[in-house]
Amino acid sequence: MGGLYRLAVIDDDAAVRQALIWLLEGQGYAVEGFESGEVFFEAPAQAVFNALIVDLRLSGMTGLMLLERLAERPYVPPAIMLTAHGDVPHAVAAFKRGVLDFLEKPFDDDRLIQLVAEAVERDRQARERHAHRARIRQGLALLTEREREVMQWILAGRLNKQIAEELSISMKTVEVHRARVFEKMNVKSAVELAGLMAGWQTDDMVGKP
Predict the structure, then answer these.
(1) Fewest CB atoms less than 10 Å from the CB: which of 39, 97, 190, 207?
(2) Whole-model pTM above 0.85?
């Protein structure tokens, strides 16, 4: 079931739009319909959708034009594109814009439901990654230059004594910096810090030891 996931259906055919809304609401999703791309972009800024179902041949702004405009935003939820007149060039263009799949009308309801489930799961994972990165960025912004240096040595597996020798500071000072690093990065151990930072790459970090 859809739970709290929100979907946007953008289709200029009122009958198709309403049928999609009923179908997806029946799966437990919160669904909002839009008759055009222009109307979609007039939605309140706080409107957050976890997946989009977009008709290719919308009147006015086309489905591809809508995706191009969305691409200017920091994050674009997964999209499923629908059309009554599919062709290879449009399908290729849609996939290049990150469309999850391209379905021709009339489409199989079960297939659409399956794709929506895949789309909202992809969205959930993407938002989790974004929150993870945001947590790291917020923590890094609080660190002093020396604390970043100490953190790099911690991540390299160095003991306090070794870090003190590398930085020519006392062990007591290393302990203080280490405690502040853990506090600001919201972790309790070097292992947890390593897990948080796994795969993280940014120019904001001090060069690796």
Answers:
(1) 207
(2) no
